[in-house]
């Protein structure tokens, strides 16, 4: 257990929990922003580019989630928006400086994707070779021995990310074509694991923690949709679709919510995912946005 956390006994249910003391998060983008690169510093959102508005929103969300006390079995919390923020900010600034018609929404970071690169579904080779983004990545404050963060030195491949970005590489040819109308974003930016390193998804969390997490992530998603003026939100998997639908309804947004099957190899009947996803996009009338 890190020096920033301690165990306590929850008086409500008698279970052990991990109490994480809030700490000030340092982000590489808090240095002066180079206006010559098209980035505008200052807190006035009317003067900020879309990318800077999103990064400011994500910093706030990461800070809020960092204050949540997650009970056991959750023992490890990875926040790529903290230790890999330099890479994440490259992704946002490079590919999200315009409004987007379509917002693809993932659930949360995978151990070999965003947890390593700071990019949603960020399989190493796809981020480095297709998105042309790379650089140094830090470490979470408390690291699970079997799920170490080695950044772009990681030799593991996240199949979900390889499939998702690989689909759009095949359809679009270039990243610029994909991002002309679309963007990929995660609903929850933190990864959660038990003592043995087993991934615990937000869908598996019980108790008051999930209410706090949902409240923070829902508001951030609503603001993201507004900033991008997204007309269509595509949940990648059922959980992301459900949260998107709740957010659109509760905030009275005009965006339409759709669903794309999750590319995880663990999902049932998920062979030939690329063909199925392409067919789904065609049925939804969206394939034209991704064709070269």
Automatic annotation (TrEMBL):
<keyword id="KW-0238">DNA-binding</keyword>
<dbReference type="GO" id="GO:0003677">
    <property type="term" value="F:DNA binding"/>
</dbReference>
<dbReference type="GO" id="GO:0005634">
    <property type="term" value="C:nucleus"/>
</dbReference>
<keyword id="KW-0378">Hydrolase</keyword>
<dbReference type="InterPro" id="IPR039134">
    <property type="entry name" value="SMUG1"/>
</dbReference>
<feature type="region of interest" description="Disordered">
    <location>
        <begin position="1"/>
        <end position="45"/>
    </location>
</feature>
<dbReference type="Pfam" id="PF03167">
    <property type="entry name" value="UDG"/>
</dbReference>
<dbReference type="InterPro" id="IPR005122">
    <property type="entry name" value="Uracil-DNA_glycosylase-like"/>
</dbReference>
<feature type="domain" description="Uracil-DNA glycosylase-like">
    <location>
        <begin position="94"/>
        <end position="274"/>
    </location>
</feature>
<dbReference type="GO" id="GO:0017065">
    <property type="term" value="F:single-strand selective uracil DNA N-glycosylase activity"/>
</dbReference>
<protein>
    <submittedName>
        <fullName>Single-strand selective monofunctional uracil DNA glycosylase</fullName>
    </submittedName>
</protein>
<keyword id="KW-0227">DNA damage</keyword>
<dbReference type="GO" id="GO:0006284">
    <property type="term" value="P:base-excision repair"/>
</dbReference>
<dbReference type="GO" id="GO:0000703">
    <property type="term" value="F:oxidized pyrimidine nucleobase lesion DNA N-glycosylase activity"/>
</dbReference>
<keyword id="KW-0539">Nucleus</keyword>
<feature type="compositionally biased region" description="Basic and acidic residues">
    <location>
        <begin position="18"/>
        <end position="37"/>
    </location>
</feature>
<keyword id="KW-0234">DNA repair</keyword>
<comment type="similarity">
    <text>Belongs to the uracil-DNA glycosylase (UDG) superfamily. SMUG1 family.</text>
</comment>
<dbReference type="InterPro" id="IPR036895">
    <property type="entry name" value="Uracil-DNA_glycosylase-like_sf"/>
</dbReference>
């Amino acid at each position: 257990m890190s020096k920033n956390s301690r165990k306590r006994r929850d008086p409500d249910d008698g279970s052990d929990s991990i109490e994480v003391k809030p700490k000030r998060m340092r982000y590489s983008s808090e240095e002066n922003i180079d206006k010559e690169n098209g980035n505008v510093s200052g807190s006035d959102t009317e003067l900020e580019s879309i990318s800077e508005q999103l990064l400011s929103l994500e910093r706030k969300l990461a800070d809020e989630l960092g204050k949540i006390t997650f009970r056991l079995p959750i023992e490890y919390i990875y926040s790529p928006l903290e230790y890999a923020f330099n890479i994440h900010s490259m992704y946002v600034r490079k590919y999200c400086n315009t409004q987007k018609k379509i917002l693809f929404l993932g659930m949360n970071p995978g151990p070999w994707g965003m947890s390593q690169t700071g990019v949603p579904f960020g399989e190493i080779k796809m981020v480095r070779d297709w998105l042309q983004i790379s650089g140094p990545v830090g470490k979470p404050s408390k690291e699970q021995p079997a799920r170490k963060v080695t950044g772009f030195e990681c030799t593991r491949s996240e199949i979900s990310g390889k499939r998702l970005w690989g689909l759009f590489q095949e359809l679009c040819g270039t990243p610029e074509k994909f991002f002309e109308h679309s963007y990929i974003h995660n609903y929850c930016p933190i990864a959660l694991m038990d003592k043995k390193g087993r991934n615990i998804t937000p869908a598996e969390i019980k108790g008051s923690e999930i209410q706090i997490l949902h409240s923070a992530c829902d508001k951030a998603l609503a603001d993201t949709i507004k900033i991008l003026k997204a007309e269509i939100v595509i949940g990648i998997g059922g959980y992301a679709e459900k949260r998107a639908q709740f957010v659109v309804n509760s905030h009275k947004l005009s965006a339409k919510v759709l669903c794309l099957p999750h590319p995880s190899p663990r999902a049932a009947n998920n062979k030939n995912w690329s063909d199925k996803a392409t067919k789904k996009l065609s049925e939804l009338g969206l394939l034209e946005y991704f064709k070269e």
